[in-house]
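In response to reviewer comment 3 from the previous cycle, which asked for concrete evidence that the modeling workflow produces usable outputs, we include below a single protein chain processed end to end. The sequence was submitted unchanged, and the resulting structure tokens are shown without manual editing.
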Amino acid sequence: MMARAQRERVVRMSVEQPLWRALTGYRVMTMVYAVLLFVFTREKFERPAVAVVFLAVMSVWTLATLPKVANAASCTKRFLVADLALALTGILLTPLADFQAQQIDGPTLPSIWTAGSVLAFAIKGGWRWAAFASSFVAAANIVERGEPSRDTFHNVLLVWVASIAIGYVVEVARASERTLARALEIEAATRERERLARDIHDSVLQVLAMVQRRGTALGGEAAELGRMAGEQEVALRTLVSSGLVPSTRVSQDAALGAVVRTVEADDEDDEDGGDGGGPGAGVCDLRSLLAPHAGSKVSFAEPGAPVLLAPAAAMELAAAVSAALDNVRRHAGEGAQAWILVEEWPEEVIVTVRDDGPGIPEGRLAQAEGEGRLGVALSIRGRLRDIGGTAELISVPGQGTEVELKVPRGKAGQAR
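The workflow returned the following structure tokens.
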């Protein structure tokens, strides 16, 4: 069967992209400026052939590499290094073309074209990359001057500070774009949940509620059927409110800036469950594994947006939650109420399982481990330890039990 057809509309929100366009224009204009500067001052060059060769190479390079500075994806590290090397070469060749360059302050062969190379580093990699590139340019200018003057140090410092400032602004802009993309994704998911909730409430949920009422009124086997219908109604309400529906928007930190990808999909799914090659390939939404636990006695609360983990980590964490709920049913009684809370933080994912049972007497867990009953030690702590996480159990007699499961982001896919 053919994979599910999708129609995508990409909405780009990029403060960064105009900077690449500005850099493209800057490189062309400064190339022309450097060539004209040589043409009008060529009489001061003792070896004009050196300047002509370099400026010819620089012009060809600038025009040939315009696509490389069109966006971040095209601007590779290899290009940046080669571009910076050309700029440094031009600076160091200046004394060979103009013998007075080391005694008299004046423009180098590439002139202000060099700043374009540094700015490319800043836009591509932020302020750290800018500091790296501008430091090389500063060193080359000082070597080229021989005896650098105050103006030389002033110009070097100006390029260094300006490039770092631009790099920092780019980093802040990228962070803002990611935040906005995430907010739009959550907003779209919320609207989709509300739409589904309205549709389901008008059909399936009303039928289940009617079956529950009629079954309770009839009694006997119908009462059991009514009870089951009531549990399914609660589970379905939880599923709808938890947002486990296909996202209408998916945010990505793409090379061209933050991207919110609006996806409209057919109702027909791939026979084997999807193509696996989308933006979320290789990750699993933890909510989809925990939502089935929701019911009349188990409440499920989650962030309202996908909680993505490596499949192995998500499965182990879900298994630990199942073990915790088994302990609730076994030790707190059939009438105990349980709550599952999922929290997503930049550094870690936290899942808390809490119940309103009688709690665990002090020293009971250590006694159980001593007797060889290792449910908590193996089923919960062991699973979390295998994926680099931790499990903390807090219990107060008469006030229920709380199990807090933490999985660090950096270790979530590295099962030991």
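The longest strand covers residues 257-265. We consider this sufficient to address the reviewer's concern, and the full set will be provided in the supplementary archive.
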